[in-house]
């Protein structure tokens, strides 16, 4: 049975955070994978009824590097009869992905908004084919940032090791191996970079017919604190394939959960006109008067986004207003300290769960621990806030007809 103390949304959100259970650990890939396999089942067991059935999988672009953490972590957990808010009980699978955990995530997944990939041209060649940048984007096509496409590709080609659940089976093949499953739900969930990747991966798999054994309405997403990673055509396609399922406050499906005071959710739209509530220009004044270094970092982000020649548009969202700081920051470090609280703690408060218990780190050979600054500085946008760019703002022509998409997003009282 489901945990009576947590509703379905709270359980899914908690599972999404468990994907970050080794985010502070650095070591070679084998050491991190061992630690992940030891820690994750213990964490998942904190939420009754759930069991890891695929993975967990850690991936590193430099598997022998002992000075960095995992670049991607993902897993699938199953509940035989999750109880939903309407009283339904359904077999449910949650695919969860970690947020930013390494410099690779920053350099590749987060910062590579300077170029884009045509979603459908890529998927026509197969989601397990490495994406290629489109140097001449066309109006009307759905585009995602190159960094997001690379991240989705890495997740789609990840293979659980023989010590993990469903060893040797890629994600699309895992879902394709199911029998006809008219009453089974699959939910994609992640926080921060995990939100960007899971929502895009869910749409990519749906468009690739990987879920042919499932009703399309039974494929859901529950992302939180993620940046915009696609143009308006992508955002419209997402809204069509994943129509918003409304509910009170955070009890919605197929919407990004957004704290209006979280700068990560303000990326990567660089035009306030088309997305007034979520755009890069909002960041410098989130907590008070703008700070020079923060303005410079945001300007760098705007240049990166402009180089793509598309305008990034947030997907439909439910927005809440986190508690503002008691004192406005006057330095870059003070701003940074507030950011981390707004980027995680306020979401925990809004959704109404405690932070997941973290297991004690066993100091195995080859395994170390990242500092808080190492962890947080890899988050989307936050990395730019610690760089003093020597660039000038780019300009992008505003596109039309964004209001209908913005109408899908709502603000709620905290």
TrEMBL record:
InterPro entries on file: AB_hydrolase_fold, Fungal_lipase-type
Single GO BP term: lipid metabolic process
Fungal lipase-type domain boundaries: 180-266
Name the UniProt record assigns to this protein: Lipase (Class 3)
Species of the source: Rhizoctonia solani
């Amino acid at each position: 049975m489901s945990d009576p103390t947590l509703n379905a949304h709270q359980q899914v959100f908690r599972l999404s955070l468990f994907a970050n259970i080794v985010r502070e650990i650095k070591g070679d890939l084998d050491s991190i994978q061992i630690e992940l396999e030891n820690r994750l089942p213990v964490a998942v067991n904190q939420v009754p009824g759930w069991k890891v059935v695929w993975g967990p999988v850690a991936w590193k672009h430099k598997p022998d590097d002992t000075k960095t953490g995992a670049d991607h972590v993902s897993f699938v957990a199953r509940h035989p009869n999750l109880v939903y808010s309407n009283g339904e009980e359904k077999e449910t699978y949650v695919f969860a992905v970690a947020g930013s955990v390494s410099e690779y995530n920053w350099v590749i997944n987060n910062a590579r908004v300077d170029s884009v990939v045509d979603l459908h041209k890529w998927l026509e060649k197969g989601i397990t084919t490495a994406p290629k940048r489109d140097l001449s984007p066309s109006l009307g096509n759905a585009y995602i940032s190159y960094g997001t496409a690379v991240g989705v590709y890495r997740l789609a080609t990840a293979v659980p090791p023989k010590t993990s659940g469903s060893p040797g089976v890629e994600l699309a093949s895992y879902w394709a191996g199911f029998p006809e499953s008219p009453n089974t739900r699959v939910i994609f969930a992640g926080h921060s970079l995990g939100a960007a990747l899971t929502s895009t991966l869910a749409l990519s798999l749906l468009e690739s017919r990987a879920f042919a054994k499932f009703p399309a309405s039974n494929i859901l997403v529950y992302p939180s604190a993620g940046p915009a990673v696609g143009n308006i055509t992508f955002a419209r396609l997402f809204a069509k394939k994943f129509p918003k399922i409304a509910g009170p406050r955070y009890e919605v499906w197929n919407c990004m959960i957004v704290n209006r005071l979280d700068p990560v959710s303000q990326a990567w739209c660089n035009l306030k006109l088309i997305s007034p509530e979520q755009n890069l220009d909002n960041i410098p004044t989130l907590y008070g008067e703008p700070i020079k270094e923060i303005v410079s970092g945001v300007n760098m982000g705007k240049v990166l986004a402009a180089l793509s020649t598309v305008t990034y548009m947030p997907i439909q969202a439910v927005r809440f207003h986190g508690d503002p700081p008691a004192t406005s920051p006057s330095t870059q470090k003070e701003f940074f300290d507030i950011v981390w609280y707004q980027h995680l703690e306020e979401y925990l408060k809004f959704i109404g769960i405690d932070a997941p218990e973290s297991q004690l780190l066993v100091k195995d050979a080859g395994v170390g621990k990242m500092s808080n600054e190492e962890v947080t500085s890899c988050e989307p946008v936050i990395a730019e806030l610690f760089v003093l760019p020597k660039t000038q703002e780019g300009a992008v022509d505003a596109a039309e007809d964004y209001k209908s998409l913005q109408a899908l997003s709502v603000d709620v009282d905290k």
